[in-house]
Amino acid sequence: LLSRRQRQMCIETDFEERDIERFAERLEAYGEEIRYVDRLTEFPWGQKLLRFYDPDGHLIEVRTPMYGED
Asked: How deeply is 20 buried, as exposed, middle or buried, from its count of CB atoms within 10 A (0-12, 13-18, 19+)?
């Protein structure tokens, strides 16, 4: 877990990825321990996301586009 100071300095970055399952597989194969906030999750409306910390402690969110988004 991150210290309070690290959380205060944390940046959150969001990305969209249509093939999020493949992204999750590649992330697992990375070779370093991944500090997940949320492993691959699917919401009732169909959108999927995963959230994790990068090596510098910044929060990364990767999600599929919402229906109708290009």
From this structure: buried
Q: How confident is the prediction along the chain (70 residues), in pLDDT tens digits per residue?
A: 666 766 656 678 899 999 999 999 999 998 888 999 999 999 999 999 999 998 888 899 999 998 755 5
Alpha-carbon torsion, ordered 69, 13, 27, 2, to 10 deg: -140
Residue 59: what are its φ and ψ, rounded to 5°?
-80, 130
Instruction: Check residue 57 and report its DSSP letter.
Output: S
